[in-house]
Every structure is written in structure tokens, then in C-alpha cells.
Amino acid sequence: MTNHRNSHKSKRNNDPHAAREASRYDTPLPSRELILTTMADQGVPLGVEQLYALLEISDVEREVFNKRLNAMEREGQIIKNRKGALCIADKLVLIAGVVQGHPDGFGFLIPDDKTKCNGEDLFLSPKEMSQVMHGDRAMVRMSGLDRRGRPEGKIVEVLERRTQKLVGRVIQTSGVTVVAAEDKRINLDILIPYHLDMGAKSGQVVMVELTEQPSSHAKPMGKVVEILGNYADSCMEIEIALRKHNLPHEFSAESVKLAESYPKLVQATDYKDRIDCREMPLITIDGETARDFDDAVYAQPQGKGWRLVVAIADVSFYVKPNDALDKGAFERGNSVYFPRRVIPMLPEALSNGLCSLNPDVERLCMICDMQIDGAGIVKQFKFYPSVMRSKARMTYTQVFEILQNPQGELAQEYAWLVPYLNDLNSVYHLLQTQREKRGAIEFESSETIMIFDDNGKIERIEPSTRNEAHKLIEECMLAANVCAAEFLKKHEHPALYRIHEGPTPEKLELLRTFMGEFGFGVGGGDKPHAKDYGKLLDKIRERPDAQLLQTVLLRSMQQAVYSPDNVGHFGLAYEAYAHFTSPIRRYPDLLIHRAIKAVLNGDRYKAGDWSNLGMQCSMTERRADDATRDVTNWLKCFYMQDKIGEVFDGTVAGVTSFGLFVALDGVYVEGLLHVTELGNDYFHYDKARHEMAGERTGVRYQLGDRLTIKVVRVDLETTKIDFSLFNKNKEITSEFNVSSNKKSIDIKTGGRDKSTVKSTPAFEGSKSESIKFGGKFGNKPKTGPIEPSTRKSTSSSKPKPQNKTTKPKKVATKATAKATKRKVKK
Questions:
Q1: How many other β-carbons are positioned within 10 Å of the β-carbon of residue 672?
Q2: Could you tell me which of 400, 284, 448, 398 has the C-alpha nearest to residue 819?
Q3: In whole angstroms, what is the distance from residue 593 CA to residue 481 CA?
């Protein structure tokens, strides 16, 4: 057998990727490239047995080789014809990609390689979508153009079924039970045989496992595997979001057991090779409701400059590569903060216990020790493992009060701490000065929190103030994150950088066109710097239309993502930036800790494919954004149920081809003013000008316009809110009548479609083109950093007196959890 293996190995020496395969597998297989080349050389479809012979695949290798062929088929590189022969997909002019469904029944194929269809997605008719579900991978043949001129596709083969389970609502009619998916992009109802429904009643929310996938001649079928409860049950919106977005929310027994196997307290044996910082007056500053403390800070004068110490929980000491905790953390990617509930990345024994920098207990940490000169520039830094003991757990509200009123009652209570807070404040102002010189972009934004009563019902939505204490901690975290990126870059160690690229050429051209109409230019040529944006922001900040111009600037930016390719951070104006400061709740930070430790030990951390790690971490971040947006949308719809018929003033927060999204003053909710509600005219959408213009009347509605609307419809099931125009701000002729023909569209309140009620900037958490960033809701927005921090916090503002007997509870929404949990989600 050995001689035979060596023989066929020698025949594969012409494989251009033999070395790569040998580094990955004990028994290297022919690479995908060699397989495709061999098939192309034959010029005809090949049977699997023929391919075995051509590539000298031994009997013992066939099982593994078949897995490679299956993977190539799933990814659309090869395809089986009706006779079972393997064909090269490119030769059949087929396009592989991911199916994206639409609530109206049609869909699109998002091609893996968009160059095959001129960069466009392929339209899939409802007939084609009846064979697949949102998220499936399919092979499609272009069949021409649809009636709107879009390239249209016909499904040739479904490569991978990605929906095995889904959450939905039971519908029982005429003795037939079906489940309608909560994800409206899945437009197919699931048929449930009577003996597989677990006794679920009509209207209940259930989990369904598919037993048969859809096809051109049959609907999907399934069985109920879990009854979650009734739709109106408390926190049901969170249970639905968890399952709709496939968010892991239950820890494996193995990971919980491993987390709880560690002693409750740090052991003396763990101090080995660590710098003892237990006497250093490190303190944590976080929100009132926070329970997991990633970081602690300390500053002291040093010559003409300062020493700044940022201590971060040493999660990597407990979570080892490829153990049960690591696998769970990788799958989750990050903690998810819902109103009233957190889905942590790590089990509670670690996240709120052994890894949390609680006061007056020993904790293991990694320290970034920085020397900052009198101008606020970090001149030197070093990393080292340490053991610490936090001297105090302070809240943002407390620290802000002490700094604002140094002679006040609270300052007297914490008299011993005041000098340390003053030192931190001095360092903060120096770092802030450098931020301004660097040109980091500062957008104005509003943040909100939801107030719940004791019954778990949303009572009201309030604006949240981001004070100087939030910014103080954020600047400290930014400094440590930059040092981490520079450290790994200097030592040429692979890392996951937090990258944010500048505007694309297309978006830059649209931005210049729009700004030119207002008499403004965008400097920087083809590649503007953050400073160019900053200069423009300074010019427009005091204008009455500043909100409009700022929103357009924001939308021209791209998303921030994780990548091993360091291209810098445009918004923060950093050449290199990484996430180091939140390893309890972000997997990328854990990877950075491991890489830094490896360098300190003269080693290299072999994490695997860093590109795939970056894509996974970026995906889990967007997934969390989508899930929290869904929950926030539902809660806001619930809140608006009893406001149908009420009149509000608001700001146009988004303009689309089907209408205007209006953000309401005071209630911090958005809804749709459909195009049919704008008047009896043909309205045309101008993407470059962000406006809708009437063809006959010339009436124009633009981003940032002020309107008075009436709430006409709230649909909890679809999380849609509809408005009608009540009192037009623009003069319209008496002939300009409002039509009653409305169409419901999903409200945009966060996540990928940002609005004024959300604080996360475009490049941080959303596709910039689809962001809704509306008006000021009658309140002057607070100036915030380009990438607000993500620490959990509670607003410092006090709730208004209520006549109700129940005591309101403040619970941070995602906007607040992300924007005030500060650990710098930049």
C-alpha cells in the first residue's frame, strides 16, 4: 500500500498547489485547481470513476476525495448533469450564488462572482423562488431580462439547503396546519402533518424542522419540534429573533462544565510570570447595569507627560484554542445586548465572574502601559500579563458628577478617588486634542433608551445623554487598541484589524454632486482623508440644513469590518487599528490577546485562516445587529399600538422610491409615509439628491424636511408602521389630494438601516447606502465620536414622574447598549 501511495503521489507532482495540500493534510489530495484542469483537458463531462483513474485516486482515498467533489459542487465549481457526469460549471455558463428572498415572493441570486453578470444580481421570479428558500445556494442560468430590464435567472440546481429549522407562527384553516416563517424573506408556508404538530394551537410561535425541502412540484413540509408560546408573551420577540437569525443562545454542557471547573478566585499559582499590579489604583468605569467589566484604567503624571495604564481581562488564560469554550465563543462571535436580556459570548462563570474585573478581588489581566507626552501623543508602550485588584467600580454618571462638581457631596464621598479621576480627565483632554488634530470624524447623533414597567411592557422611550465620562473611557480604549495594532504590525504577526475604508468612487461621485448643489466641495481628490470630511462638517455644522448634509456624508461611507489586511481606519483616521479591549464579549479581541501573548513569548499564534476568521467575526456582528434591530422594531410597534390617529411632527429620515421614512419627535420611532400619501401626482425618486419630486406640481420632499403626520396603521406581526400626511410643510394646490392607497413597509429603526434614534454610524454597523439617519426629534443632538463605544449604560437623565403604581425600569436598547457599552466598537 505504501509503494502504491508513493507511486500515485509521484504522478501528482504537476499539481501547482501540491505544497499547500501537503501542509494541510497527512495524505494530500489533488487540489481543486488540478481537478478542474484535468476535467478541462478532457473536454467532456466525466464520470466519477473516470476522474478516479485520471488522478490515481486509491481506494482508501475515495471517501475523502468524494467529500472534496461534494464541496466543489456546493460552491458551484462543478455540477452533475442528468446522467450523473461531472461538468465544469463555467463551461455550462452557469452562475453560482446565494438566494436572497423578498417578502413579496420574488428574490435575487447574489452571485459569488459578479463579473459574470456585469456586477448585477439576478432576478428570480416567484415561480423560481418556489423551489428555494432565502439563504440557499443555487446554480442559475441567465434567461434574459425581465420587464424592468433586470437580468433574470432560472434555477438549474440547488447546491446547498441552508434552512433546516425555522421559527414561525401556526396557522390552522380547513383542517390544514401550516407554519408561516417569521423571516418574511421566506415566502413559503411549511405544511405540518397533523401527527407532527405537537398539539400547537393557531397563533402560537413554534420551531419547525424541515422534513422536505421545496421543489418545483411540492411545498416544503416539516414537523414542530418546540412550542415557544403565544405571540404576545413577554420577551417572545427576543425568542423569535434568536431563532430567526440563528443566534446561538444555549451553551453546550461541555463549555459550561469547563467554565465552572475553574476556581471561583484566582489562584496564587496563576501569578507566575506576571507583573504584580494589585496595589495600583486601577478602577472600572461602566454603566449602572453592567455586570461584565472588561477593563480598568489608571493615569499618573510622569515628567512633562503622563503614564496611562489600561488593564484588560485576560480571557485567553481561561479560553484555550479549540477547547469547548473557544468553539462556543467562535460560533457566537460576540455578546448580544437586547432590551432586558443579554446573550453573552462566554458562560456566566467567566463573563460575570472569573474574567470580570470586579472590585476588591484579584483578577488576571493583560496590561497596555503607555507613556504619553504633553501633547497627547503616545510615545512608548508595552504589553505584559499582570494580576490586579480593582479599587473601585464607578459608573459614568458618578464620574461625570464628580468631575463637574468637585466640591459636591459625591466628590466628598469619594474624596480618595478624586485625584485619580482628575489625572484620567487630564489625559483624556490631551488624547481628545490629538483626535481633533488627526482629523477623526465627529458626527452628531442621538441615543435612546427604552423604559419598561414591572410587567415588562415598554412605557416610553427617552433620549440618552452621552457625557464626558463615556468619552474619557473611550479615548483610553482607543489608545490601547491602536497600540495593539501597532505592536502586531511591528512584529509582523498576523492579526485581525478593524478596518474602515474610505468612500467608493461611485459614492464619492454622488457625494460631490450633491454637495456641489449646496456650494460645497469635498477635498482630497480620488482618495479623501477623514480630515477632508471633518473640514466639510465644520463648514456645515451651524447651517439649518446641517442634519441633511451630515446624513449624506454619513451614507457615503463603507462598513467597518474585521480583516487580516490592514488598510487603516478612515473614520478614526488611524493607519492601524485593532480590537483589544473587550475579550469577554468579542471574539476578535480574544484573538488579538493570543497573538500579543505569542509575540511576547517569542512564538507565533497559529489561528488558521485569518481571512475566514475575519469574515466570521464580521458576520456575527451583523447578525447581532439584525437581531437586535428586529427586537427594537417590534417593541416600538408595540409602543405605538395605542397611538393610531395621533398627530406628530417629524423629520424625513430616509427617502426611497416607494416613499419617505419619517422619524417622529419625542417618541423616537420611524414609520413610512408611502408615496401614495404624498398627493395625487407622479413622484420621481432622485437618488443623488435624496428627494421625491412631483412631476405635475413640482412639490419636493427631501431628506431632513420637517413634516406633520398622522399614525394610521401599526402592524405588530410584520413590524410595520404607516403614516399619512396631516399638515404639509410645503404649499400645495387644492388639487393635490392625498390618496388612501397605502402600502406597508418595514420601519427602519436600527441595525443596517440606521436612523436618528440609533447612534451607531454607517461604517460601523450598517450598509451605508441604506442607513436612515433622520432629524433631531426636537432635541439638539449630542456630539459623539465617529464610532461610539459599545458599553452598556443607563442614561443619566431622570425619568419623568409617573402616575402609575408600577416603578419604571430603565433598560438600554441596542442603540444605548452599543453606544454606551463603550468598549469602543470601532
A1: 25
A2: 448
A3: 11
- Cα dihedral sign for 486, 491, 492, 496? negative
Q: What is the 3-state secondary structure (H, E, C) of 433-459?
A: HHHHHHCCCCCEECEEEEEECCCCCEE
pLDDT at 445: 66
Q: How far apart are CA 240 and CA 231, in angstroms?
A: 9
How many residues would you count in the chain?
826
The secondary structure element, H or E, covering residue 423 is helix 418-438
Task: Please tell me the distance from the alpha carbon of residue 726 to that of residue 96, in angstroms, as a whole number.
Answer: 48
What is the per-residue pLDDT for 727?
A: 63
Is residue 663 within 8 Å of 670, Cβ to Cβ?
yes
Q: Beta strand 362-372 with 341-343: parallel, antiparallel or unpaired? A: unpaired
Q: What is the mean pLDDT of each run of 10 residues along the chain (826 residues)?
A: 44 69 72 84 83 84 86 82 78 84 91 77 91 91 78 86 94 90 92 93 94 90 94 88 94 96 94 95 92 94 95 97 96 94 95 95 97 95 97 95 93 95 96 90 76 80 87 96 97 95 85 81 83 82 74 83 94 94 97 97 93 95 94 91 92 88 89 91 87 90 90 89 75 38 38 32 35 33 38 38 42 40 41
CA angle 70, 72, 73 (to 5 degrees): 65
Q: How far apart are CA 139 and CA 110, in angstroms?
A: 11
Cell numbers placing 408: 459636591
**259 Ramachandran zone, left/alpha/beta (phi>0; psi -120 to 50):** alpha
Beta bridge partners of 286: 395
Please name which of 604, 613, 598, 721 lies closest in space to residue 664, comparing C-alpha atoms: 721
Task: Please state, in angstroms and rounded to a whole number, the distance separating the CA atoms of residues 655 and 704.
Answer: 10
So what's the pLDDT on residue 768? 33
Q: What share of the chain is helix, strand, coil (3-state, %, to 5)?
A: 30, 25, 40
pLDDT for position 13? 62
Closest by Cα among 492, 472, 480 to 578: 480
Pairing relationship of beta strands 706-715 and 647-656 according to DSSP bridges = antiparallel
Cell numbers linked to 406: 468637585
User: What's the grid cell of residue 375?
Assistant: 501633547
- The owner of cell 447595569 is 289
Beta strands in 62-162 (DSSP E): 78-80, 86-88, 95-101, 107-111, 122-124, 137-145, 151-160
Coil, strand, or helix at residue 67? helix
Contact assessment for residue 351 and residue 292, using Cβ atoms and an 8 Å cutoff: yes
CA distances from 625 to 149, 632, 668, 751, 765 (A): 33, 10, 18, 5, 7
Relative to beta strand 720-727, strand 670-674 is: parallel
Residues 6+ apart with CB under 8 A from 390: 282, 283, 284, 293, 296, 357, 358, 359, 360, 361, 363
Q: Pick the closest to residue 266 from 398, 347, 390, 363 (CA basis).
A: 363
CA–CA separation, 260 and 349 (whole Å) = 6
Question: What pLDDT score was predicted for residue 379?
Answer: 95
Show the cell assigned to 288: 449602572
Confidence (pLDDT) at 100 = 94
Q: In this structure, what are the phi and psi dihedrals at residue 674, rounded to the nearest 5 degrees?
A: -65, 155
C-alpha cell at 361: 478581588
pLDDT at residue 745 in the model: 38
Q: Are 730 and 526 in contact (CB under 8 A)?
A: no
Contacts of 195 (CB under 8 A, 6+ apart): none
Q: Directed axis angle between helix 324-332 and helix 253-261, to 10°?
A: 120
**Which grid cell sits at 381?**
508602550
Compute, in degrees rounded to 10, the torsion defined by CA atoms 84, 90, 94, 95: 120
User: What's the one-letter identity of residue 353?
Assistant: G
C-alpha cell read off for 726: 396631516
The rounded distance, in Å, linking the Cα atoms of 223 and 212 is 10
DSSP bridge pairs for 171: 178
